[in-house]
Amino acid sequence: MLLGIDLGTSMTKAAAFDLDGTCLAVSSRKPTLRHLGKGRIEQDFEDVVRLVSEVVREVVADAGRVPEAIGITGQSDGLWLLDENARPVRPAISWLDNRGSPYLQDWMDSGVYEEVFRRNGNAIFPGSHAPFMAALAQEDPGALTRAATASYLKDGILQRLTGARVTDASDASLPFLDTRTRDYDPEILELLGLSDCARLLAPVMPAPGQAFPLSAEGARLTGLPEGVPVHAGPFDIVACAVGAGVDQVGDGLVIIGTTLACEVLVDRVDTGGEPVGMTLCMPQEGRWMRALPATVGTASLDWILDLVGAECTQVEALLAQSRPGANGVTALPYFSATGERAPFADVRARGQLCGLNTGTSKGDMVMAICESVAYAARHCVEAAGLSGRLSVSGGGANSATWSQMIADVLQCPLAIAPKPEVGARGACLAAADAIGIDCDRAAWTKAEGVIEPRAELRDHYQSGFAHYLETVEAARRLWHSPEKERLGTASHPPLVSA
Q1: Residue 150 φ/ψ, nearest 5 degrees
Q2: What is the pTM of this model?
Q3: In what order do the strands lie in the sheet with 92-93?
């Protein structure tokens, strides 16, 4: 048995698989996000440690076996400041937090943002390490002084379970890594004014990573025997690609999660073009994931559901009340307080609902948001350079209507990634590679089916996508108009207009 742990933003999960890839048991718990107001969102590392203990014990009991190895994946970014014993020195700053936005805007205005991208193919966004470090250097410098590591969540859990202080190249890719050499680039730290923070960066594991034995403390937390190999990496959007079988250059994956993560496997680092997105090191040398993780995923759907007083279990019924085109209602789904990061970067990006009238139904508004996310997926996938097979995963993919809509908008077949827990599945495969367990990858990553696009909707959604792009360009000019600058658009709530 292999055990995968997935430390998501909205759920902490563990899943057990036999060596043929069959899922034996799954357990999950919901972590607590502390919303402090003014866009500030934090988490308690010890709360996540407790949840990991619970889900691992529950899965192992249900499966009735001791795992041969444990693979960990999870949310990247955010800032988890830990001491030398992997204890938090302050609450973790979630990647959803927007306190880094002013610092990112300064780097964008000064050209530093683009200089960093031209070095490693990664566009800094407000929820990544660099803006948070810059913010804490101003508002809580003592936390940086007390910390031994500016960790990622899964690396902090690895350290608690094994004592190992390391990180995976996929996490470290953004913002400080030279993605070609897989080592930190001191020039990037200097450009950002963060050279003093170099001591906080954990060593990067060489490909394909390394497993570390479960320590006595890790054994107490998990109920497992000491010595079980534990591997942390790659982080969730890369692990999902591994679990979905994205293994040929040009193949891609759309993850309809809190983030709409659109990614394509590439064989070179491209630092040209518009400075957006991520270039993430894969477990294999010479391979990278060109990722465009937009902030417009299920979080946008959750926002509209809350607005109309509906639950996620009602999505299919609400969509059935409308039709393609949402009876004239259109949307831009940029409702994150941190703006947008793919396929363009703009901390002032804000959402819109247009074409409302007294006859507009709740279903029309939900349909418009879902269609706008589908358009965003096409926008990102095309920018990432998709040329091969495309798969789909994530919680949003559980909606058959929404998944079909995305296939129709892209006019591309969507292979349904294997369920359950594609991220944990990828983490297990990475762990197996690290310790030399030979798994049948074709069996582990076999698609559950294929969603074919409906040809009769090609022209409709082609026109809808063209309108979407026109609206995006018009809105980008408005976000930066002198009047919006004066009003401080970046801190205002999303715009809803008729």
Answers
A1: -90, 95
A2: 0.89
A3: 33-37, 40-43, 92-93
